[in-house]
Amino acid sequence: MYIAREATKLWRKVSAETAAELQLLLEKWQLLLAGLVFQYIHGLAARGVHYLHRPGPLLQDLGFMALPELGQEKGYLSESVFTFIFISFLLWSFHPFIYHSKRFYTVLLWRRVLAFLVASQFLRIITFYSTQLPGPNYHCREGSKLATLPPPNSALEVLLINFPRGVLFGCGDLIFSSHMIFTLVFVRTYHKYGSNRLIKLLAWLMAIIQSLLIIASRKHYTVDVVVAWYTVNLVVFFVDKKLPEMPDRTNGLSLLPVSSKDKDGWMKEELQLHKLDSRMRDEVHKLLNGNTVDPTDRRQRVQMNGKHGEDMNHAVSDATPNGT
After folding, report:
1. Cβ–Cβ under 8 Å, residues 264 and 136
2. Which one, 4, 87, 170, 251, has the greatest CB density within 10 A?
3. Percent of the chain scored above 90 by pLDDT?
4. 106: Cβ–Cβ under 8 A, 6 or more apart, which residues?
5. Is 155 exposed, middle or buried, given 0-12, 13-18 or 19+ CB atoms closer than 10 A?
6. Average pLDDT, the chain
7. In the chain, what are the helix, strand and coil shares in percent, each to the nearest 5?
8. Pick the residue with more confidence: 132 or 99?
9. What tens digit of pLDDT does each residue of 299-321 get?
10. How many Å apart are CA 289 and CA 44, to the nearest integer?
């Protein structure tokens, strides 16, 4: 019976959160759509540079000397770590739909994340088109049929970008690593808006492991990873300063109250938040209409600063000596 009762509350919570997020989506859909469209543009640019790629001998690389080569059969390790990071962040970004203890709206969070991604990917496109390096990956080396793409038969062949094979077996888009762009943006975002310190440390550790696996898998040169580390962090830092800060929704409440005391505290907290939101909306309405202070509020402040306020405080203290 308890589970059924709380499941009904959870469904109401999900429904209310969905309605709020949909309202935000209707207001912010233009920027979200632009960010998603740029993901396709980024893939199109990576596909285009593959036509310009020319295989050659591997460049001298300190990371290749320090890290043993995993081999083509173990190249999935770096992709597995990246997939874990991507899915974990995706699921975490939607946790406000379930938990009462939340700090952000999902729509606003992804709007911010896409802004970081677009700025970093724009710099990446400029960089890898400026100079084409011989790819270190196995399918990009001399003798591989995938190292150089034949001229396209039509514009449609380029526009379709051969997803996902064209993304997995691309060449030429080296400086700097796209995998590290996503990884660092996700880790930095959780570091700011997440609440678990242990997971934050684990996330940064995963980013370091991801960097080493990319180099050991020979998917990128060490310079691709190093440039990604300082470029993405600087991009996130400066873009974050330009974007308006998201409202903090933290209220410290658990999803399911396990006792009547917790349930009473949850209901009181919800009531206080509702009153606070109503009061804030009234204040904003007054400011928009040019009314800074209500005349009745002004009279109350004068009384509180005068003798009547002091007498009232004494009367209250005498009536309730124990603060109850």
Report:
1. no
2. 170
3. 48
4. 21, 93, 94, 96, 97
5. exposed
6. 79
7. 70, 0, 30
8. 132
9. 444 444 444 444 444 433 444 44
10. 49
Closest-CA residue to 211 (of 187, 193, 239): 187
Which single residue is written with the structure tokens 């929704």? 249
Contacts of 233 (CB under 8 A, 6+ apart): 184, 188
Compute the residue count for the chain.
324
Pairwise CA distance, residues 128 & 52, whole Å: 11
Straight-line distance from the first to the last Cα atom of the chain, in angstroms, rounded to the nearest whole number: 36
C-alpha to C-alpha distance for 309 and 319, rounded to whole angstroms: 15
Q: Are 56 and 134 in contact (CB under 8 A)?
A: yes
Q: Is the pTM of this model over 0.90?
A: no
Peptide bond connecting 96 to the previous residue in cis, omega within 30 degrees of 0: no
Among 182, 217, 185, 204, smallest CA distance to 82 is for 182
Name the token pair of 52.
């310009």
Cα–Cα distance measured from residue 166 to residue 87, given in angstroms and rounded to the nearest whole number:
21
Q: What is the pLDDT of residues 13-60, one digit of tens each?
A: 788 888 888 988 998 899 999 999 999 999 999 999 999 999 999 999
In this prediction, residue 293 carries a pLDDT of: 46
Looking at residue 296, what is its pLDDT?
A: 46
Q: Which residues are catalytic?
A: 179, 220, 224
Does residue 172 contact residue 48 with C-beta atoms inside 8 Å?
Answer: no
Q: Are 128 and 240 in contact (CB under 8 A)?
A: no
DSSP letters for 215-265 = HHTTSS-HHHHHHHHHHHHHHHHHHHHHSPPPPP------SS--SHHHHHH
pLDDT digits (tens, 9 = 90+) for 224-248: 999 999 999 999 999 998 888 877 6
Token duo for residue 311? 């007498």
